[in-house]
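A favour, since you know our structure tokens better than I do. Go ahead and set the record down below.
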Amino acid sequence: MTASLTIDVDELKKLNEYILSKNLNVIPVKSEHELLRIKDGDVSIIVYKSYKIVHNESLESWKVLESILKKEKEFEYILGSDETGKGEWYGPLVIEAVALTPSQIIEFRKLGVRDSKTIGKSQLIEIAEKLMKKKFPRKYRIFSPETYNIRFSEFKKEGKSLNDMMAWAHAEAIKDLLLEEIENKKTRVIIDKFDVKKTESRLRGEMRVRKIPDNSVEVIQKSKGESEIPVAAASIIAKYIFEKEVEKLNKKYGVDLRNSEPSEIDPKTLPYVAKIHFKNVSKHLT
């Protein structure tokens, strides 16, 4: 059996220092994509130039890896949120927020949690199903196409945009998580950046209304947020939920949304399976 995870530059440096301190046996690499190979007793580790590590899951290999993986020390929880479905004309919009302790972050890394864009569909489903069996604080919002269309219309009537709706949805999920699951814990909130001002305004507004102390919560919005494990976990789960919801829509309405164009779907069905403000959808509505 083998497992994989991704490390960063600092962790690679720590690995090299660990190799020297323990005098581990380093053997020649076998391809141009490999950076390092360790084979020493039960320790079998390959480091790729992409910073991906593949190892044999032995107790000794895990000891090596656990000694180099960073562990958050300042915050009790790291909360990450992400969404999926915003760019697809069909299916729901899914917002997922998860909160992990420093120890859980290490555990999730061991399970292969990383940027979901680097994970194939079958592996993503496998990882998501493992995550869903674990106990950790999480909140989500699923906006079916029908609900999404109503909400979007309401925001539009107020002169607001999809980003306003997204900021509201993220803020709602995060607020519920802070209030119901990790109240009064020192928390860092990380959001995959899409509109800094609107998201910050919505979230801080919700926190003031709900009397969540500003000094207990640090909010970070960053590009490539999936480099953070809680955000990556949120993304993986959101994509998993999206796929399951699309399957339900396909079955309910007798369609194949992944392999169809809006023009191939009954116009009367479109508001129930598609986001009707998309141009390729709206032109086919009755």
In short: The chain has a mean pLDDT of 92.
